[in-house]
Amino acid sequence: MSFFKKIFSSEKKETLDKGLEKSKTTFLGKLSKAVAGKSKVDEDVLDNLEEILVSSDVGVNTTLKIIERIEVRVSKDKYLGTSELNEILREEIAGLLSETNSGEATDFSVPSNIKPYVIMVVGVNGVGKTTTIGKLAHQFKNNGKSVILGAADTFRAAAIDQLQIWADRTGVPLVKQNMGSDPASVAFDTLESAVKQNSDIVIIDTAGRLHNKVNLMNELTKVKRVMQKVVPDAPHEVLLVLDGSTGQNAFEQAKQFTAATEVTALAVTKLDGTAKGGVVIGISDQFKIPVKYIGVGEGLEDLQVFNKFEFVDSFFK
């Protein structure tokens, strides 16, 4: 395969390498121990590899898929040296990610034939949802797009205040109401304002609490229904933000939100502060939802458009 005969944009790639440093160091350290004294990939090596992938939060089901793919390679090639294992892993994981992330974006852009393009952002409190919205607004604005934000997480005053800070910081308008207001009403006002101002992109923040699934489903369904009174096919994207540092807990959140609403894209944040970067691979594979953005640092530019080749190259470099 020629997955990695690519030229990566150096500045972005350096940030990604640095952001995944903990995950890479932990994973490769364990892998080195697993193959120590071994010259070929045998059953022991594969057993150890399985354990390493699971402990790196790739997830059991995805790990078994990866091991099966490598077993096929081993049986076909008869002899596979442990020195080749790293490259094989890169190829097989990139192949796995390609099944879900086949038509991934290459930059911060939205379809030019949809205006306004409405993004509804979901996720629990503390995962970096508001920060992700702010950084997205910044990147879209840098690309020459007009952006408007809607503070439809009305359950907490802090959520509205935080979004206002990001709106001020990025220089984009924010539509908000008082704490306790109807989230659907805020979404309606935001879309009305976007249509009047001929805005390119609308980003709607929604409630960040995992109350019981029925309530969550009802609330998100109502927000969607009310938005469609203004923009009939809204939202065009439902972006679920997950905290990569929580590992298996991120899987559970993905399970809850995908059951409550149709999630079309993922943003995985806080990968720079964790050794659990493997969660990106597992969640993308298990939920069949493309990873669109990853957060690898605190800076405005540290929210990156996900590129499976760059990610896997950084993870196994």
What keywords describe this structure?
elongated, eight-stranded mixed sheet, 317 residues
Question: Would you kindly provide a written description of the structure presented here, covering whatever features stand out?
Answer:
With 317 residues, the chain is of the alpha/beta class. It has 12 helices and 8 strands. The protein has helices spanning 10-19, 21-35, 43-55, 60-77, 85-100, 129-142, 157-170, 183-197, 213-227, 248-260, 279-287, 308-315; strands at 117-122, 147-151, 174-175, 201-205, 237-243, 265-269, 291-295, 303-305. It has an 8-stranded mixed beta sheet with strand order 3-2-4-1-5-6-7-8, with helices on both faces. Helix 3 (43-55) runs antiparallel to helix 4, helix 6 packs parallel to helix 7 and helix 8 (183-197) packs parallel to helix 9 (213-227). It starts with 9 loop residues before the first helix and ends with a helix. 47% of the residues are buried.
Strand content: 5-15%
Weakly predicted, low-confidence segments: none
Mean pLDDT: 88
Radius of gyration: 21 Å
Count up the helices: 12
Shape: elongated
Largest sheet features: 8 strands, mixed
* Structural class by sheet pairing and helices: alpha/beta
Arrangement of strands in the largest sheet: 3-2-4-1-5-6-7-8
What is the string of helix and strand elements?
A: HHHHHEHEHEHEHEHEHEEH
Distance between the termini: 17 Å
What's the SSE blueprint?
Blueprint: H1 10-19, H2 21-35, H3 43-55, H4 60-77, H5 85-100, E1 117-122, H6 129-142, E2 147-151, H7 157-170, E3 174-175, H8 183-197, E4 201-205, H9 213-227, E5 237-243, H10 248-260, E6 265-269, H11 279-287, E7 291-295, E8 303-305, H12 308-315
Parallel strand pairs: 1-4, 1-5, 2-3, 2-4, 5-6, 6-7
Antiparallel strand pairs: 7-8
